[in-house]
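Researcher: Let's do a round of design. I'm pasting the structure tokens now; please hold your answer until I've finished.
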């Protein structure tokens, strides 16, 4: 039967109901707006908002699916990694409902959900097999993962300071744009010259596929110094935005090239996370994948950023893998929410004996 999925690990409160084949029967999402005034996500505000929003959102989602509670075969929720307050709200709600219905609760690793989202029906039309390279580039994450199977994830490298989205947001703030800054910066960059400023390409050409963005941020700050408190001319801001975006794209392309070389026979290049919405980056990655004879897949933006559909899909993939291995459908009601939850631990679910 269908399952209800819940996402509450950051600042999106979301519910989705998926049929066993992955079809989305209903979906609701609220991007919490209270954080914009603070220029970033405030954990305590997020937790309270999840608590206020979730029960009603779950009810409305069920209503618009045309199903009754009793039709649900399972409940899944992001149980880590993320902001602990929100995780506790979502996981507790999910567990409570599952227990009341006498159905299993499936604890989903939020990063695993991002990783498997490229395999959603309608995203890659079942074209994505294993292994594939996942480039996860969001506000909180920046890493390269070899996705070798359901539950089989190998971290190839990641950021040693800021996440890519975080860098976009911080630079956008320096240029006087709002939060989140990525989309605004991309828009402004269209009016600018990407060669106007010579910015560093941190870690480009280095062995492995780690990332670093803090030096880039500092370089932008240095370029802004001559303007002091004076208003930044629009063309200068646009040129800086374009130059920054170009530098980030150069770095990510280089790191992805290294990551592909670290894998044995990758079958696709996949990007997820809010930064994967960036058009310049998408063009680069499409060309990179093509040069390797691989498809490039990036879920549509609403599935790239945090959502409950990917959480439900991960639960379905896990159930299917368990069945394939002759294991029972998991019931994770004893799994506690965790702010950190390394992907390497996900294989334990399928460990035999
Ligand atoms: P998490 O990291 O926990 O997955 P998050 O909320 O921090 O969650 P997302 O919601 O996936 O991350 O993405 C938001 C980030 O993506 C922000 O940092 C935003 O600036 C960035 N972003 C969104 N659109 C673009 C774009 N067009 N270009 C560059 N960055 C973008
Ligand atoms: Mg978000
Ligand atoms: Fe996320």
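Researcher: That's everything. Go ahead.
Model: Designed sequence:
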């Amino acid at each position: 039967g269908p399952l209800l999925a819940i996402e509450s690990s950051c600042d999106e409160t979301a519910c989705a109901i998926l049929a066993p084949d992955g079809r989305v029967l209903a979906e609701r999402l609220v991007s919490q707006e209270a954080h914009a005034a603070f220029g970033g996500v405030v954990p305590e505000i997020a937790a309270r908002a999840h608590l206020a929003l979730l029960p009603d959102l779950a009810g409305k989602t069920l209503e618009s699916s045309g199903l009754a509670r009793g039709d649900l075969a399972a409940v899944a929720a992001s149980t880590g990694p993320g902001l602990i307050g929100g995780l506790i709200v979502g996981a507790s709600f999910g567990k409570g409902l599952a227990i009341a219905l006498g159905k299993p609760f499936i604890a989903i690793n939020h990063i695993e959900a991002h990783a498997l989202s490229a395999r959603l029906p309608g995203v890659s039309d079942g074209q994505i097999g294993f292994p594939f390279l996942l480039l996860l580039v969001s506000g909180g994450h920046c890493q390269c993962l070899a996705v070798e199977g359901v539950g089989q994830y190998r971290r190839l490298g990641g950021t040693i300071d800021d996440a890519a989205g975080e860098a976009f947001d911080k630079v956008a703030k320096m240029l006087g744009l709002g939060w989140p800054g990525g989309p605004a910066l991309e828009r402004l960059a269209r009016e600018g010259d990407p060669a106007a400023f010579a910015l560093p390409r941190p870690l480009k050409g280095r062995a492995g596929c780690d990332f670093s963005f803090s030096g880039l941020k500092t370089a932008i700050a240095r370029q802004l110094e001559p303007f002091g408190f004076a208003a930044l001319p629009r063309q200068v801001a646009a040129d800086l935005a374009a130059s920054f975006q170009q530098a980030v794209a150069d770095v990510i392309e280089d790191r992805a090239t290294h990551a592909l070389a670290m894998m044995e026979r990758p079958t696709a290049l996949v990007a997820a996370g809010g930064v994967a919405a960036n058009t310049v980056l998408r063009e680069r990655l499409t060309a990179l994948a093509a040069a390797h004879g691989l498809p490039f897949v990036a879920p549509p933006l609403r599935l790239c950023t945090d959502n409950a559909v990917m959480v439900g899909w991960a639960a379905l993939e896990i159930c299917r893998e368990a069945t394939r291995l002759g294991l029972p459908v998991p019931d994770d009601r004893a799994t506690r929410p965790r702010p950190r939850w390394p992907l390497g631990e996900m294989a334990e679910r399928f460990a035999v004996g």
